[in-house]
Amino acid sequence: QVQLVESGGGLVQAGGSLRLSCAVSGRTLSNYAMGWFRQAPGKEREFVAGLRWSGGATYYADSVKGRFIISRDNAKNTVYLQMNSLKPEDTAVYYCAARWGISSTTHREYDYWGQGTQVTVSS
Q: How far is CA 8 from CA 12, 17, 83, in A?
């Protein structure tokens, strides 16, 4: 079993930055892929960024490319999402997720989820 705990959400003005953290426990992560997803009210959960734990390959949605950075800290078993140049349309609940195997942009292919953290960007 994999447990994920997100933190770092909050309220920020447009143009500002936030860093989300996802602390992972319960498994050795070398064969896992990690993902950040978000869900705004009335919308589908959408892929934001992904990372293959072994090797560190990263993937981004076009909407956040160049503004967000996903990274990991092996020693702390933690995944981060650095969010810069935030826009009001980035407002959503952000979720960390894990799946065994290769990365995926499809939320249904992830097996483990955190509880989510709210990010609100004011204009």
A: 11, 11, 11
β-strand partners of 35: 50, 97
CB 104 within 8 A of CB 59: no
Predicted pLDDT of residue 73: 92
Q: Which token pair is 109?
A: 């292919």
Angstrom distance (rounded) from CA 91 to CA 118: 8
Residue type, 64: V
Could you read off the pLDDT of 32-68 as tens digits, one per residue?
999 999 999 999 999 999 999 888 899 999 999 999 9
For 108, phi and psi rounded to 5 degrees? -70, -15
Count of helices and strands (H, E) across the chain: 0, 11
Angle, vertex CA 47, rays to CA 26 and CA 25, nearest 5: 10
Q: pLDDT band for position 29 (50/70/90)?
A: confident
Cβ 71 vs Cβ 80: under 8 Å: yes
